[in-house]
Task: structure prediction
Amino acid sequence: MQIITSRAAPATDTKTAGKWPSPPACLVARQLTQPPQNARVAVAGIVILRQRPGTAKGVIFLTLEDETGVVNVIVWRNIYEKFRRAVIAGRMLRVTGRLQRAHSVTHVLAEEIEDLSPLLDGLVQENQASE
Result:
């Protein structure tokens, strides 16, 4: 699988800050320090954690891992209802949403969720064919 990263203007350029980075190009976890607050980003990774605390009023927290680190994703109830199958069963997801930083923690507030799990199956098949 190839993860495409976008080239972007510096966050100080106010004319392009709202357009950077442009999904569907995905950022890797270590690049999430670069976009400005509330920028629309896309990330992809293996789902390593799903949490749905009873006190969170229907909010689901996902943690995705890529080759550079982890990404925290917040899925609000209305987004969960729209992308339920991907949130519940997806092993690898692409999440597009808004970047939020609070108290030294970066989150992606999910707007769209795509299940990329079939790509994992393709990797297994490629490995078996090369052996």
Notes: Residues 91 and 117 are 5 Å apart (CA to CA). DSSP finds three helices and five strands in the chain.
